[in-house]
């Protein structure tokens, strides 16, 4: 039992880290496909130490750099919700294409899947961009002038 719990904890950590990177890459791929240039910062530096970075910081951040004039808010909104695509492989479960991972007794796999699914949830910052994309674009325009 202890080995299974340790395995589950390590699986959660690994799937969480992989999922966070996949979450940010989903933003980047969407921005790239929509013609928005961006910058990815991997492990951005923090002034308040390693523990603060682990618990409160970011492992990666995607920052749009320039916005094409046409439909810029729409492009940001689409990119902000792209982490939801991490759930697409799970669409095969209700369709009967894939087996239900929670019908098995494999705790390690179940916990890893939960960690991955958690990373597919858009962050509060993602939702902020969804609702206020026009403000972001206008602020960037004002900064550029």
Structure, explained:
By secondary structure, the chain is mostly helical. The chain has one domain. 57% of the residues lie in helices and 9% in strands. The termini are far apart.
DSSP E strands, number? 2
Largest sheet data: 2 strands, antiparallel
Would you tell me the structural class of the helices and strands? Answer: mainly alpha
- Indicate the radius of gyration in whole angstroms: 18 Å
* Order of neighbouring strands in the sheet with most strands: 1-2
Alpha-carbon distance between the termini? 62 Å
How many helices in DSSP terms?
A: 5
Helix content: 55-70%
What is the beta-strand fraction? 5-15%
Mean pLDDT: 87
Task: Name the features.
5 helices, 9% strand, 145 residues, mainly alpha
Gist of the model:
By secondary structure, the chain is mainly α.
Helix/strand layout:
Layout: H1 2-33, E1 37-42, H2 50-56, E2 60-66, H3 72-81, H4 107-119, H5 124-144
Antiparallel strand pairs: 1-2
